Amino acid sequence: MKKLILTTSLLAFGAFMFTAQYGCKKSSSSNTVDSISCSDANLLQAALSVTGGVLKTGTFPTSSTTGTPTLSAFQSSAGLSAGHSLLLPFNYSSTAGISKVLVMVENATNGYIETSSYSSSSSTGTIVLSISIPGRVKYGSFTLRYIIIDNSGNISNRISTDIVINAPVTCANASVSGSEGLTFTTIDMTGKSSGSMTLTYDTYSVPDRIDVYQGSKWLAGTGTNPSSPIPPQCNCSTPLPGFIGATGTLTFPYDANLSHDITVVVSGCLGGGTAWDWSTSCPL
Fold first, then answer.
1. Which of 114, 146, 165 is the last residue of a domain?
2. Mean pLDDT, the chain, integer
3. Which residues contact residue 43 at a Cβ distance below 8 angstroms, ignoring those fewer than 6 apart?
């Protein structure tokens, strides 16, 4: 299985620290939940936003016994900061295409989320499931389970991803390490002036790829511009261009007028026990 760690920064840092300190409570003036614990599966599920998703009541369906669609190549784990979107890619194979995707927070008893936004008549393909995590979700972890239902009503195998809500990252403390699969790290640049930044990396002997973006603009990388916010992935035994096993630095411009974040994407090669790390400096 490939692994995705999606690490992003929290822009409203002060507000987030307040919720982390005082826990999950309700406002005295309304029924709005001020913060949500990752251990409160029902509150968390009601707060998640899946593209085109609607919260449905009832029991999460079980797999069909015949004609079962197959889900594979999914992410076993992912991480991000609250207030950002989680991207969960997976492959499917179904003779009757896709009608719906169903998502459930493990241990939730208030139903599940259903979306038809990914419907297709194609028998195979890749879905990148987009799930927004509200800023009021506290640091912690939870598990998402998901399935597809095809256009004939057949239900796929159930897959799951362990989610970690991480602390924010800034250019002053950005030091990240990882292994195989895609790792997204968004660096909060709020308050920083435009200037030149440096990223120092070590991908060791097993090849990995690193790309740096500001918004949708590619800034630098160990290969050429992949023309996509999700760089390619490959097996360690057959590395694609841009996958290297080495130490080095990337220098790139930060434009404070463009946005207040920088995103570093590492594509760790699959199946070879890879490891990598990188750190950055603030603009000069």
1. 165
2. 85
3. 24, 33, 36, 37
Same domain, 182 and 260: yes
Phi and psi (nearest 5°) for 14? Answer: -60, -45
- Please report, for the domain that includes residue 219, its CATH number: 2.60.120
Indicate the residue among 140, 165, 190 that finishes a domain.
165
- φ/ψ of residue 147, rounded to 5: -140, 170
Q: Examine the domain organization and report whether 188 and 133 are in the same domain.
A: no
Domain match, 105 and 232 both:
no
Count of the separate structural domains present in the chain = 2
Q: Which uninterrupted H or E stretch holds 19?
A: helix 13-22
Phi then psi dihedrals of residue 82, to 5 deg: -60, 150
Question: Which residue segment(s) compose the domain that 242 sits in?
Answer: 175-280
Q: Which of 4, 18, 7, 20 is nearest to 187 (CA)?
A: 7
Collect all residues with Cβ–Cβ distance below 8 Å to 110 and sequence separation of at least 6: 42, 45, 46, 55, 57
- Say if residues 145 and 158 touch (Cβ distance below 8 Å): yes
Amino acid identity, position 85: S
For the beta carbon of residue 246, count every other beta carbon within 10 angstroms: 12
For 105-136, the pLDDT digits (tens) are 999 999 999 999 999 999 999 888 889 988 89
Residue 282 CB neighbours (<10 A): 16
